[in-house]
Predict the 3D structure of the following.
Amino acid sequence: MKAATYILFTFLFFFGSGLLIAQTYSTSSSALGGTDLQNRVAQLDLLTSQIAANRNTSANNAIYIQQVGNYNTSVVNTRSNSSAVNLFQRGDNNEILLDVTAANIEENVLQIGVNNSFIDVSRGNIVHSATVIQRGRDQNLIWYGTNSISDKLLISMQGKNQTVFIRNIKR
């Protein structure tokens, strides 16, 4: 009887935790997805605050990486006075490459799916702030440079086989 109870508990633990994660996903039928996008940003902010609360740190520069899946990679190179970088990857073969120089950096990246890629190479700005959400398969985002137009940029990619290039070059 104890073995059956143990097996049942183990089964409920593993599959119950997966159901809890699945409850945060919602779909929107609006053309622009404005409300849905705001909900996703709110979810990302909640995850960020939960991780920050669990770290109990008072550091001015912090990078948090959470990866669930196989063959996910994150390479982060930042130079700043103050930074908060939060990277979340759930799925397989996702890649994040950041090479950012700014006085203040705040960057949140959420990748859910397979074969998603985000590359950010930005230098020389006072503030670099961005939120990137990639959901789906084979999403590619390449961001080069920074200027006032890209301050507090929010990018949401959903679906499959999409590539976006952002070039912010000062003249």
